[in-house]
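Recap from last week: sequence in, structure out.
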Amino acid sequence: MFVIFFSIVFLVYFLVNYYIYTHGIKLLPQESGIRTWFTIAFWLIVSTYVLGRFIERVHLSAVTDVLTWIGSFWLAVMLYLFLIVLFVDIIRLANYFIHFIPPSLISQNFKTTLFTIGFGVAIITVAIGHINAVNPAVKKIVLDINKQANGLKEVKIALVSDIHMGTVIGPRRMTKLVKEIERINPDLVLLAGDIVDEDLQPVIRHDMGDVLKKLTAPMGVYAITGNHEYIGGVNEAVDYLEKHNISFLRDTSVKIADAFYIVGREDRSKTNRKSIASLLNGRDSVLPVIMLDHQPFDLDSVVTAGVDVQFSGHTHHGQLWPLNYITEAIFEVSRGYLKKGNTHFYVSNGYGSWGPPVRIGNRSEIVEVKLRFKE
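Predicted structure tokens:
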């Protein structure tokens, strides 16, 4: 199954790039050597991400870092070049039937200009998206819980999901995250999955656990697994993070300050994860329940179980426009707040990114949550 999935991914990746390449080369003048240089440069860049991710599993080095960085940005450039070429093809198809473009306009100079504008627009869009991605917002929300918490009036939480620590999200971004959380000064830190971006080795190599150790809160730092922990080896990732002061809730719960419960679900990648009912069995039902579940599926079952708040991530809200339309079609809430019945849901955009360190149409975020309990 794993081989079939990645075979399909590589095939789609090749076909999309081939579509861009065949259209791009037709816009360049035949009589110059620029087509040869374009062909070489294009396919070298296309290969960087695949090469970087495969080679780093064998041997990490500065070379694999460079390959992965170039390839990551190319993924975003590729998406917007694909959309631009598709748009041009739609215009050409319309012109085939309506003939609204004067033939005199279609010159070699026009084609070269179109080539330059297309690449320029894609690169500028990605550059703006990178600036957006590396400057996260601190989103503040207040949730009123209609339960008493044994005299506790409120609790301040720093919620972070989808950090994706690895080659791209490195020590600099992690240091920035820790400083932002220190400014929030939370009572409790919650990490809602995908802390590690698949391969643990870049995290170890850059000693990012040393940065994580600085994450502290009076009520603790708790985390759950996400699908990327499972992709890269969940037990190894959890062991490493727990050695650096992160407490994992893996289909378990913990009572905090004798006032409320935190329930942490395993990611859906685990086929036999426990049901919500079994996780809530034996708890004091009068106390509030906060649940962490990385992927925000099946919200009705959460409401039925009587959970007061669920925090999730995973979606990135598509990360790159217009992919948000896909996540909005898949998930009942792709980002932000939703209330169903008596249950509050919040799905974070995430702090990091998968693939390109780029966000278009949404922003990286750290969520400052104030939970206010019934007096």
